[in-house]
Amino acid sequence: TRSISIAITVLIIACPCALGLATPVALLVASGRGARRGIVLREPRVLEVARTVDTVVFDKTGTLTQGVMNVVEATVSTAAGSVLGSSFASLINEATILSSALAIESQNSHPVALAIARHALGKGAKNYDVTEFAVTPGSGAAGRVNCGAHSPVVLIGSASAVAHSCTDFHAELKAAITRGQEAGLTVSVLAWDGVALAVFAVGDQLKSDAAETVRALRTMGITPWLVTGDSAQVAASVANTVGIDAEHVVSEALPETKLKFVEQLKSEGRCVLMIGDGINDAAALTAADLSMAMGTGTDTAISSADITLMNSGLGSVIDALKLAKKTLRIIHLNMGWAFIYNVIGLPIAALGLLRPIYAAAAMALSSLFVVTNSLRIK
User: E strands of the chain, at which residues?
Assistant: First the structure.
């Protein structure tokens, strides 16, 4: 009878309830706490990776900025349209050019495109039919627009991207591009059949907590980088405002540039966190050790990221990293307690110094401690 009693006591003490609860309960609580704060975790492994992050790469539009952009200056050059020939003469006017811009940009979800579409609508533009529409991440959008007498191929994108497939820009448009870049604005050029006709200078506001978030990351020992498809002037202006060093800025970056840059940082032994919101960022988000997508961004970016930040502000980045570190500390404490409990309890039970009912109480208290400790995660 005594032997059976001792055996039962040992079995009760050895029951790995606390060890089995130590990790999953903590992860469950962390997921719930994160969801309340707008932090959606795709899988638990991200919590372990988050504590080793030493480098963060930011996209600009929609990440450091509000992503709600407006056209600050629009320049339409009818003189530039003379290159297209006399057959286009009846179409080379501000209304038709803006209508072609609306036709293309109304089908594009990029914040700059939405700003141009709103501007065109405000000027009374019509929405023409579009065929052969295509978006080239990092360059722009294009399609064949039915303007009535003609259906030109309309391209809207960055000045550098459009210049590759256009004749030399008209002097009036060159001056508009220079003004926009010097003002730190995002510049887009519209072209018909390889002839540039308009320039849109688009501005965006930085998020109110962008600079504060960058400072907090620096305090945590994490080095911030800015990698954006915008011009060098725009990138430098934003970086200076939020507190990112000038040497940590990469401008005019295509999606493949962002991907290669993230892979380069990883090859240098860095643990990289990538934060973005657009199609342009999807490849880099997938390649990074840890990735976060803004919930206001594209579905492609969200599906590529490990963590989705449902709040529009950047403060959730710091909250997510702190949540990960806190969760891991709790898991380690839970595992340590469960291990010590078994190491101390098993010899006592094996020596017959503990009755089964007390062993059961000890096991329940151990499990209760693990659960209660996990609930401390905030």
Answer: 39-41, 55-58, 70-76, 130-136, 140-145, 153-158, 186-192, 195-203, 223-227, 249-250, 272-276, 290-294, 307-309
